[in-house]
Amino acid sequence: MEFINLNKVKSWAKEYNGDYSMYFPKDIEDIKSLISNNKTIISAGGFRSYGDSAISNYIINSKHFNKIIDFDEKNGILKVQSGVNLDQLINFIVPKGWFLSVTPGTKYATVGGCIASDVHGKEHHKYGCFSECLQKIKLLINENEIVEFNKKSHHDLFCATCGGMGLTGFIIEAEIKCKKIKSNQIQFKKILSNRLENIFSTFEKYHDYDYSVAWIDTIKNNGDYRSIFNCGNFSNNLDLSFPKKKRNNINIPFKIKIINKFTIKFFNKFYFFLNKFTKKSGTIFFDKFFYPLDKIKNWYRLYGKNGFIQYQFVIPKSNSIQAITEILDFINTSGVFSSLAVLKLHSKENKNYISFPIEGYSLAMDFPISNKISKILKKIDELVLHHGGKIYLTKDSILDENNFKKFYPNHGEVKKVVKKYKISKFNSFQSLRIGIND
Predict the structure, then answer these.
(1) Which of 33, 102, 145, 434 holds its CA 20 to 30 A away from the CA of 346?
(2) Is the pTM of the predicted complex or chain greater than 0.85?
(3) Span 185-399: which CATH code?
(4) Which residues in the chain show pLDDT less than 50?
(5) For position 244, what pLDDT does the model report?
């Protein structure tokens, strides 16, 4: 079993300094040994979460649990180990006429991470979170016991594991129901607007499309906020071939602080202007539609050595326009700038205890780390709470215990499950910070 002693661990958004031990077990017996020898431990995969949800003094990395075990090509049931990333799955299933039923905005997240975060994507308004396509989970809960279960057989364990941020054990394997497709192309539409109110009506107008998302310029322009809406469906052109050459990713080789308030202003204006002259409809390769930021390898380095904070909240549909406008106005008066902001429409919340989406709209924003950003985001926490919303734990790095328990009133059910199933101490810095552990 590989082992590394570290003094820094990198989440996607920032580095955490400390005394960490990271293990790379090669089989289940290795993991059992780690659990028995450590008081607290957390699982990690591709470190694509933005905060400290996969950071602990002792970390189990799923690097070697990276096999595709089986694929029922007739029914689209994929059996995989937890360390497989979505890129591996996509390359395997798309040529066979299948795609992921639910995918986040990066293909480099692992299956285990997708389950622990109960990820969502551009399709949530139609297909919900990742847990909706899970047929079975195989979970190591302590040094002696492995549980195989689904939503019906162990409903409470399922609800605590999906979106549970790794606190119920080490995910070994999962069975995933995939989506049948006839093409690797997305038929898309693009709509630009100079008024924030218009973007919400556009989401509703194109609700029947499988995928929808909008870029928001969070810097006020002529008293309002500009946006670019994209929606799409898989094409039916019967082309499942992959390009002979994969697109070359842009590599950022070292940390250099390019993203600041001046470049953010310039980029937002330029990006909106450029989109006025690009195609408003047509077909696009699925990879470019779902994972545009994956083209830039290590793009977090553009924020310099301090990194950035991604902050995502969701607001109930009934007051989403009012709340999101109020929050954007507050950001503008606070003098901070979001380098990227993404708006999505969500369907009804699921039964998972600390899963994120509710029926409404979410906004994810990236902020360069500064002396005042934490204080400003704490204020936004209160605005989100006032409007009946939630903060996404996978993006969180500053939420406190008091607000967490208000955002997630069912958090106590996770503790009950941990106690009921005699689950070993799986804790992260985040779980200790928000008070979900005993």
Answers:
(1) 434
(2) yes
(3) 3.30.70.2520
(4) none
(5) 66
